[in-house]
Amino acid sequence: MKAGSGKRLSSEHHLHRSIMGPAIERSLLTVSLLVAVAVVLQLQSVHVDGELFTALADMEELLETEAVLITNLDNYVHAQEEKLLQLRQKVNEYRREHSEAARDVSAYLSNPVNAFLLTKRLTTDWRYVEKLMTYEVGKEFLENVTSYRSVLKFPSDEDLNGAAVALMRLQDTYNLDTASLARGMLNGVQYSTELSAGDCFELGRQSYLNGDYYHTVLWMREAMDQLTHEVNRTATKADVLEYLAFSTFKQGNIQTALTMTEELLELVPDHERAVSNKAYYVKELEKEALQKVLRGDDGSEEVPIDTSTKIVTDGSPHVYDRNERKLYEQLCRGEQQPPIELRSRLVCRYTSNQSAFLRLAPLKLEEVYLRPYIVIYHEVMSDGEIERIKHYARPRFRRATVQNYKTGELEFANYRISKSAWLKDAEDEMIRTISQRVEDMTGLTMETAEELQVVNYGIGGHYEPHFDFARREERNAFKSLGTGNRIATVLFYMSDVTQGGATVFPSLHLALWPRKGTAAFWFNLFPSGEGDYATRHAACPVLTGTKWVSNKWIHERGQEFRRPCGLQPDHGVEEF
Questions:
Q1: Can you give the pTM of this predicted structure?
Q2: Is the distance from CB of 456 to CB of 57 less than 8 angstroms?
Q3: What is the DSSP letter of 377?
Q4: Which of 192, 335, 415, 557 is 20 to 30 A (C-alpha) from 529?
Q5: Segment 95-127, tens digit of pLDDT
């Protein structure tokens, strides 16, 4: 009994292996090895959940995930092809035998061997074919995808939305034409393949989910244009029209929304939402017509209400008016610069800043603004130091935070999209050396400075206009540090940026463009301790390339004799 059961199990196992075939077995073995490799890679790295869009360093790992999925999918296709090949062989075999029998049925069946083979084909052989037909080749591969999710980085819906918002930000900041962007062109340079109608539709849908109807209309219109010349449709006209019509209505154009809805109903007459929306739009248009009659038709045009500018009453230092926004974007595009009268007085020179060490190896200093005094130091961080800092920072990256100006608490903000890590002097001699270099550069003590912050900007990564110092009303800022306000900032550029990524000072019409190995320095406070509001600055979105920076925020405590206040109140006059 036991021996018989063993034979049956062995036979079934053999049949399962026969159904899979060698190609299917090889595919499954390859996938198993990929899972093992993925587990090893995961054990060697620290996993950071979500928000992959906030740093390109994390986005790079998505390519590893995609490579594993491509191999898994390729193996699945090979397994399916092997299964279909076996079925095709059976079809040809049966057809050949059946054709021979059909020529002379009596002669064929009178042969006892043929009679046996016919019976065998319709019993044992056909059971094998049925098992092969019902065998789910994709089951193992789908299970592998599930297992990958625990060991590889997968983007979330938040990442998808964040990436879409970043594209919208880049489009606005750099005045990118929707059609050109859809063709993969950024500022006239071809960087990538074209977006399909489905891709444009998804960008529009993500904008719609954010209540951004302006960009919804732009991208849904582009999706509609793409549909006109797509052979293999990646979206449907009905879906595009549904989003486009409602977003057009939300922008205040009811008549056009009605026209689009009627076009949608021609395609899908029983579309529930379209039927309901059409009735609503008709009523709204009737109300508008009635209001015009009640006012009296004097031929004057209605003055549209400006809803684009929001009046802010909470005094947040992170809210800026339209003029500053315009200046910020112009600077990001390189359309503004300080007046020639000021630029003509700027110089480049070697400096030792009264440092004994720098007398032997003076620094290259470039003045970029006089009041406030802002300079660029050249060749102050080596490639080796940059790579080592990146190595330390990558495993610790967390989404960058800002201080709530009321509570002093750290929190996430949409106006700062990046990931950061903090490195202590005690961790490595190289980090201590950089801190000493900052002290030599600035003449300020590092005893009360913050740790070295390392930042990597993600897709469209940016930091909108802000101050590094705390204003008078921000009573809780830096309270826990007990080191006073941020007296100065040193910003190291650790990478070149292909396009975008400038540090801009809107009120000064000044833009600093990233150059690997350089560092910008400026005082945030006057000698009196008052904040210098002209130092309000921003990090422009990265259009193409990647942006790495690190910075030291230097505090007031301990600087009393290194930068004493004057006998007379200062009015923004800075001597360096």
A1: 0.77
A2: yes
A3: E
A4: 415
A5: 999 999 999 998 888 888 888 889 988 999 999
- Work out the angle at residue 503's Cα, subtended by the Cα atoms of residues 497 and 508, and round it to the nearest 5 degrees: 145
Question: Higher pLDDT residue, 383 or 140?
Answer: 383
pLDDT of residue 458: 78
% of the chain at pLDDT higher than 90: 60
- Token pair belonging to 163: 């990436």
Token output for 149: 């999710």
Helices (H), 403-449: 429-442
Q: Where are the alpha helices (DSSP H) in 44-125?
A: 56-103, 105-110, 112-120
Beta-bridged to residue 553, according to DSSP, are: 489
| 138, 76 contact by CB (below 8 A) | yes
* Residue of 524, 419, 427 whose CA lies nearest to 478: 524
Q: How confident is the model at residue 156 (pLDDT cuts 50, 70, 90)?
A: confident
Token duo for residue 438: 């900052």
In angstroms, rounded to a whole number, what is the distance separating the alpha carbons of residues 481 and 561?
21
Cα–Cα dist 283/260, whole Å: 16
Report yes or no: 83 and 135 within 8 Å, Cβ to Cβ: yes
Q: Residue 236: is its pLDDT beyond 50?
A: yes
- Is 369:535 a contact under the CB 8 Å cutoff? no
Q: How far from 42 is each of 36, 200, 395, 402, CA to CA, in Å?
A: 10, 34, 12, 30
The closest alpha carbon to 219, from 167, 257, 263, 254, belongs to 167
What contacts 402, CB < 8 A, 6 or more positions away? 318, 410, 411, 412, 413, 415, 416, 466
181-213 per-position pLDDT tens digit: 999 988 888 887 899 999 999 999 999 999 999
Tens digits of per-residue pLDDT, 40-96? 444 344 444 446 666 777 778 888 899 999 999 999 999 999 999 999 999 999 999
- The Cα-based distances of 344 to 42, 121, 176, 214, 562 in angstroms read 55, 95, 33, 43, 30
- Do 563 and 487 meet the contact criterion of CB atoms below 8 Å apart? yes
Helix 157-173 and helix 197-209, axial crossing angle in degrees, nearest 10: 100
Distances (CA, A) of 542 to 186, 331, 503, 564: 12, 13, 11, 38
